[in-house]
Amino acid sequence: MEPREMGMAGPSRLARLGALELPTPIRTAPAGPPLEQPTILIADSHEINRRVLRGILRCEPYRVLEAAHHEEAFRLLEREKIDLVVLDLMLPDIGAPEFCRRLKLQRHTRLIPLLVMTSVQGVENEIAGLESGADEFLTKPLHPAVVRTRIATMLRQKAAIDSLEEAEGILFALAQAIEQRDTCTGLHCERLALISVTIGHSLSLTQRELVALYRGGFLHDIGKVSVPDAILRKPGPLTEEEWRIMRGHTIHGEAICRPLKTLAPVLPIIRHHHERWDGSGYPDGLRGEQIPLLARILQIADIFDALTSERPYKPALPWQEAVAILQEETRRGWRDPELVAVFRSICESKTEFTQALCPNLEPDVVRTSLENMRVALLQ
Ligand SMILES: [Fe+2]
After folding, report:
1. Cα–Cα distance, 8 to 3 (Å, whole number)
2. Among 66, 129, 191, 239, which has the minimal tally of Cβ within 10 Å of its Cβ?
3. pLDDT for res 327
4. All domains of the chain, ordered by start, with CATH?
5. Tens digit of each residue's pLDDT (9 = 90 or more) over 155-167
6. Which of 287, 283, 233, 322 lies closest to 2, judged by CA?
7. Distance from the alpha carbon of residue 1 to the mean position of ligand 1, in angstroms
8. pTM over cut 0.85
C-alpha cells in the first residue's frame, strides 16, 4: 500500500476459521546446470534396463544420469538440474506413486516431467502407472523410436515450462526490488504472502486462490516501476498530479503481468487492491463484493503489515492497534466488515500467527514460516 494511505475492504463468504498451521519447508532450487543439453535421470534398480535405455538415447543430445535406488535418485535430484525422470514403476522400497509424490512436493523438482516404465503388460498396470502421477507411461519391451519421440516431446514441454518459470522469476525479482525501493522493508512481500494465504486458509479458499494470494503478495505493487522515485519517496504530501501517477500503479501492474497466462488469477489482485468497500477507492471505484475477494484479502494484509512495520516516517504499531485501525476504517466504510472480523479472530486466536507477523521478528523465522506455507500450497 502507499505509505500515506491505509487500505481497503473485504468479503462475505466467510467460512469457519480453520486451523492456521503454516506448513512445511521448501528449498530453493539448486544452482542449475547448463541447459543446452537436457539432463535425464534413469531411476531403475535393474542395470540391464538402464543399459538398454542408455543405448536407445546414445545418439541423442542428452546427458544421462543413472540411479539404482530411490535414495540415490533423490540425491541426484537435489544436486543436479534434472529435466526428465524415467522411472521404473516397481522401483524397490518406494514405488512410482510415492516417488512421484515426493518429486511433486519439492518446489525445485515439482515441474520435472516423469516417464514411468514397466515390464508388466496390461491395462490395469498402465492405469496404475498413470495414477501414480506420472506424466507419461511406457510398457516394455521398449521401441527405441517411440522412447526417443516420447522423451523429446516431454523435454520440449519442460523447456516451455522453464521459460515460463524464468519469466515469472524475473517479475518476482522485479517486484521485490520495487518494494525495497518503496518501503525499505526487506520482508514486506514475504509477510504479505504469509498473511494473505493465512486468511485464505481460514476462508477455506481453493488451492488456485491460495496460490494467487501468495503470488499477489509479491506482485501487487509491481506497477510502481512506473512511478518515479521523486513521487514514491516524496516526504511530504503528494500533489493531485502526483497522486494520479501513483494510482496508475494498479493499472500498469496489471498490464505488466497480463502477458503471462499463469498469472491470470493474480491480475484482479494487482488491479483492485486499492478499491474501497464504499466505492471510494481506485482504479475503478468498485464497491462491496464487486471488489474481488482476493484483492480485499491482500488489501487487509497490506494495510496490516504497513501499520505493524516501522517506516522512516512512523514507528511500528502493535498488532492490536493495527487491528483497531482496520476496524476504525471499516466504520468509515472503507473495509469489508466481515473480512476484518475474520482477520481479527485470526490475530486473537493464533498467537503463533501474530508472532510470525511481528516486523521485528528474526527474518529467518519469517522465511521459515513462508517456506512452510509454500510446501503446504504444493500438497
Ligand atoms: Fe499498491
Report:
1. 14
2. 239
3. 97
4. 39-163 (3.40.50.2300), 169-378 (1.10.3210.10)
5. 988 887 777 777 7
6. 233
7. 4
8. no
